[in-house]
Amino acid sequence: MPLLTVSNLKLKWQDHLNSVWAGENCDNIATRDGIMLLYYHLVSNKEVIVVPAPNSPLSQGPTLPDFECDSPSAAELDHHVAALLSTQLELARTFCSESPFATVLCRRLLVLQRIFHAVSTKYHDKEKVRAQASAHSSEGRLETTDNGPEKTCSASQALLEMAVKTGLSLLFALLNQSWQRPESPVLCNDVLRTASEVVRGLPPLSLANESQITALGVQSLQQVTQFLRQAALPSSGADSVGQLLASELLLELALQRGSLIYLLEWVDMALCASCGRQDKCTITSSVFLNAMLKMRSTAGGDIPEAKPWLNLPADEDGKIPLYRAAMYLMEELVNLACEYTRSCLGSERRSESSCSNPVAEKCDVYVCGSNSSHQVAEESQEKILVPRLARAFNQVQQVEAGQYCSFIIHTNGTLSACGKGSYGRLGLGDSNNQQQPKRVVIDGTVKKVSSSKGSDGHTLALTDDGKVFSWGDGDYGKLGHGNCTTQKQPRLVGGALSGKVVKFIHAGYRHSAAVTEEGELYTWGEGDHGPSILCSCLTMGHGDYNGRNMPTLVRDLSGVGSVACGSAHTIALSADGKIVWSFGSADNGKLGHGDTQKTSRPKVIEALQGLYIRKVAAGSQFSLALTTNGQLYTWGFGACLGIMAGETTSLLPQLLEDLASVRIIDVAIGDSHVLALTHDSEVYAWGNNSMGQCGQGHSTSPITRPRRVLGLEGIPINQISAGTSHSVFWTALPSD
User: Fold this and answer.
1) pTM of the predicted model, to two decimals?
2) CB within 8 A of 643, min separation 6: which ones?
């Protein structure tokens, strides 16, 4: 065991973890196990790095004379005795420092020091923390001190920031001053014209990913856009040409940044500039037309000939009123939003009225795979190798395929169930199998259902008023009722969720999760009876090895939008789609961190940074993420990765190349097979096909590459669900 002294510890506090440490439960500091867990968090996050201890002279001891030679003098004897005593003292210190008590004490001091730093910086020096965090994320360059945490290198950055900001301020001042002189506007306008040409020459969306731009760059962009907005207004003092160029450059920057907010800010500027001067504030029609064409092509849509901005009513100078350009831009944004909504729902064959009325009047449901327990409500219990119309599923809005069972949310918000009934998993009050869908009694209108794909089967239901009900097998406390009792009828989940409005739920194999409107993540289950409590409790994300039989807040996270629970791991997605966290068992790399080291606290999947994620999913030994532009990333182990023949392992998320040419709008996973829905209503499947659940007309298994599901050609499939051994496809548009 290395000595844990200041001399051989390198401290490097990560400011983005300050919120986590500031909210740390102080009860953990009082226990030996708690301290060890917190210390290992410091080590795993590389906030504490143990460096090799310097060579100690203790291995050789003091240098003594050869007494076979001349007898030593009294002074030499005194010197040698003092050297021996000094060495004995150092040996005693070394032995004490290596004792279990000293080790725990040293680690406790480190944890306390880390918490003090987090609390101090978060609550007492916010501006300094913000500046350090920005500098750290943008440059990543640190300098170290001998006996303390590494500090952000600020000298060169401060000089650079001062130079850039001063230079911009000087430029803006000179431009404003030159506009006031009749002989100088040409120079000012040339500067803006040159800047516009540079921006137009950039590839589309060059400034869209701000995570790849330094903090100083983002601040400079904000300064430039603020100046251009002021310059485009009549009150700025700029001449008409300067106002026109400023508005055009501002529009080009908004398009390059690729976010709706910047386009809306341009619209606001155009309307403000046009107040009382509708015909005097203009923009070059060719510039505006090119901007609109660029926006349309970047969005990936076709350009209908009827678009009004294709034939702009320009004046003799080729200019159009600024307010009219703003109206055209707003109209095009609305059209793009509606087109994207319809394409994402796979409803390009439907009328535009579908955008405002997403619930279809008639819904056809198709099923394939196992019917051994009548989970697809067919008379024959034979495998269904090609999707077949399920006539017993009526008035369907949503279907959830579970473990040998199915749940149907009807258009009126009621719930039905069929299939295997053991452990009360159907919620019908008994443990009998149900051959036909039967009404499940729940107090409220059901809007979402999530049923586990493994273990002994349990189900969660979410009502439209944000309440959560659970039923089925109660082992591991996964129902959230404070016990491990089987529940054969839906029961309200209380505890920490009482008074909360839940917006998302998910049932894993032996644990459950819910996300509230405030972006809080609650988990419960797994740990009381697992074969390995140490491993199983990791799925909770609470930083300890204790199971929970009631919903418990994951304090390390905020701003959560959705969650996916696998067999022994959990994936969480932020509401803005920019961050994906994972925690739990890391077998076969299913956490996506590039290793197989389990973690009991949420950890960001770095490989997905810079992508906008729409949905995450977790299976038995794999995970996946769907991006907003329809690309699928997989990681973990097995045929569900869909990357090559045979089973393989991927420790990091990698793009599923076989589906890169299509746009995926939804994905569903069972225990060990995957379904993917494209915006053209085509469905692909891969993974375990032993029961025909991949819809390939056979039961040869596994299917290692995505294959189009047979029998659905020409059918407008809009939703999919994958159970343990069966799959469901239906035509109703999602209500959400």
Assistant:
1) 0.59
2) 634, 650, 654, 656, 657, 704, 705
